[in-house]
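Posting this for the archive.
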Amino acid sequence: MGKPLDATNVRCAFRQALKVAEGINVNEWTRRELRHSFVSLLSDRGVPLEEVSWLVGHSGTAVTEEVYR
C-alpha cells in the first residue's frame, strides 16, 4: 500500500514528480509555489471561493481570500 503520508514523503514525491516534468526546473519550484499556482488557476477558472478554500484545507474563506486573492 505504500508509506503513510508525512512531510518527508510528500517532499520526496514532489521533487520526483518535478524531475520528470518537461520544462520544469526543480530548483525553481517549492510546495508553496505549487499551492499558490493551484489556487490561482482555480480562481482564474471561476471556481467558487468556498470550493477553493475547501480544496486547500482552510476552515473558511477568510484566509483563502486574504492570502491568495
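The mean pLDDT is 86. The first helix runs from residue 7 to 20.
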